[in-house]
Structure formats: C-alpha cells, structure tokens
Amino acid sequence: MRGYRALARISAKNALTYRLEFAFALFGVLFQFVALLAVWRVLLADSTTGTGFTWPQMRGYLLVAFASGAVVGLFADFRMSFRIRSGLVALDLIKPVRYQEARFAEVLGGVWIEVLVVLLVGGVTVLVAGAPTWPGGAELALFTASMVLLIPLKFLVVYLCGLASFWTQNYVGVQWARIAIVNLFSGALVPLAYLPGWLASVAAWSPFAGMTSTPGLILIGRATGAQAAFLVAVQLGWVVVLWFGAKLLWRTAVRQLTVNGG
C-alpha cells in the first residue's frame, strides 16, 4: 500500500505543479456546463416537458454532469498513452506495484483537487441560480454512493481506452470516440429520457449511464426507493465487471509491448 500512496501523492503534486494545464482542462468542462445551462434554460422555459423535467431539475442534473466530467484526471489517459507508445511503460512493469492499481492510485491522488473545483462551481451555481432540491434519507445515501462509484467507473472506461495504445499509435482518435460515446450514452449532453426508446434502453443498461444519468436522476428525485437502489447496484456491477475485464485485457495488451535497446 505504501507504493500506491506514494503514487497518489506524486499525482497530486503534479496537478498542483502544472496548474495551467490543469486549469485549461477544467475550463473546457466548465464551458460545456455553462453552455448546456444556457441551452436547456431556453428549451425548458420554466415549464414541464413531456419527459417531466423542469428547469430546477435540469439545473441539478447538469451539475452532476459537470462533476462527472471534472473528476478522474483529465490528462490521465494521455499520460498513460504516452508511456505505452514511447515504451516507458516497461519501467512501470518493474515497479513493485500492479499496473492497474497503480494507475487508479494516481487518479485518486488528484481527485480531491477536482472535487474542490466541483464544490466551488456548485457553490457559485447555487448562489446565482438557487439550490437544487436535495434528496433526503435513503436517497441521499444512494446519491452519495453513486457519486463515489462514479470515480472507479470513469477510471475504468478511461483505462480500457488507454490500453488501446498497445495496438494503435494514434490515441487522439480513440479519445475523441470515447468522449463522444460517453457523452451520448451517459446522458451528459442529453438526459436519456430524451433519446429514442430503444437507444435510451441500450444506454440505461450500459456502464456509461452510471457516469451521469444514475446519480443525476437520484439527485433530482426521478429515481427513488427500490429503483434508485437498483440503479446503484447496476453501477456497482459494472465497476466489478470492468475491473476484472480490464485485468484480462491487460494480460493480452502487455504481450504487444516490444522494447528495443542495446
């Protein structure tokens, strides 16, 4: 555990050292949040649509979408991809830590900084637009659990895409595809209720729904009681499946590594 804690501390120090890059990455997510607030404010126009969303509900939902986009190292996949493509990953293999757990420790090291940014933006949003309606009792506990599960879930999606660097030299295309798929199937851009029925069903059962839709629906009260508990259970199930699936993919991916030297 000592090695993982050291990696987490180094990751936090890097985020604080390279503040400009960190700020620019967060600015992109913040800009999307503000833009979506403006768009949905006009679309909903303080009225209830056929899907049942009101403006206060949408505001809380979009805040969750912002939090989902802000957490889990915005440059984690690029760092991982660079080390794989350059062969520096060979140095990671000789360290007395497991590769997947080490990358997760690095992500956790910077999460607290990202959470502070989310709380700051959330506080400003509440001051400007008013506080969303918070769930109470069991729903609040389920919302908290869902937000915690969001972190390993997003890490695993990013990590699995990062492993693609063992087979491709151009990671940018993989990243763009990941962002597009996640934004659509997680409900980050458009809540799943607005999608066509068949597509909404596919998205709801995908791992991506746990990255925005599940915590968002619990926060605004559109998922309560047994339904909320079921959604969190599905979210947890995907974390377990993807964690061990990533282990299997790593065993195949590492065989692609070729290091030349002399």
From TrEMBL:
Q: Which UniProt keywords apply?
A: Membrane, Transmembrane, Transmembrane helix
Q: Which InterPro entries does the record associate with it?
A: ABC-2_transporter-like
Signal sequence annotation: none
Any transmembrane segments, and where?
20-40, 60-78, 104-128, 140-167, 179-205, 225-246
Which Pfam families is this protein grouped with?
Answer: ABC2_membrane_6 (PF06182)
PANTHER family reported in the protein's UniProt record:
SLR1174 PROTEIN, SLR1174 PROTEIN-RELATED
Name the record gives this protein: ABC-2 type transport system permease protein
